[in-house]
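Researcher: Next entry in the queue.
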Amino acid sequence: MSNFYGLIGEKLGHSLSPKIHGCIFDKLKINATYSLFEIERGNLKTAVEGMKAVGCRGVNVTIPYKVEIMECLDKISDEAQKIGAVNTVDFSKEGLTGHNTDYFGFGFTLKMADIETAGKKAVILGTGGAAKAVLVYLLDKGISEVVFVSRDPKEAESRIKGQKIISYEDLKGLENKDLIINSTPCGMYPVIDVSPAGKEVITKFSTAVDLIYNPIETLFLRHARKAGLKTANGLYMLVAQAAASQEIWQGIKFSDEFIEELYNEVKGHI
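Model: Structure for this entry, 270 residues:
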């Protein structure tokens, strides 16, 4: 079987994933490649079948295919079922199995930033696949309340079941919340001079997390830092979820120190 892996998405021009996985292969002395596969909408199933035919070992999945990919799989892990999204696919003789390592990646981010969630009240900006992983992690760790913010709350109800969803206009009136998390691409390179929430909203919180990793400090996080909030960016999540994917593919376990070392190597390439 070929020893190649990759990332499936629609637009992948600035992805750091090949660098991260390349570092892991080097550290483990594995002779393998990790490529970017830009798939046009409507072609996902054909692409997956093609990868299977040529002996791909595994892929990561990003926007906009984290939910759609589930229809192409033979088996879905418990955590991915619970989240309702897949970001890692393991190709084996038994078939294609979907996992969600965003869950681990988000948890690792909170651990490294020393952010407590038990008993806290959280607001999540965005309702995509990453937001679902964040929700399940927070619920598992004892969050007391979660509110989602969407540009179209009615439409978002089909993706986020049983949770409160409000508009960005309503966000301005929210009070007494602890943690604000941006899971949208707003503020991501190259359009870095925008924030999904204004200063007047951000300053009502004590902690801000942005799942964006490029730039390392988004305008959203800069507003938060200047207002004295505890902050965390998305690079730990990106690196930790990649490491968790490799753990699945290679059948090994990494230490926190290994992931931190990987983080420091990758950070220098942003």
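Model: The chain has two domains: 4-100+236-267, 104-233.
Researcher: Noted, moving on.
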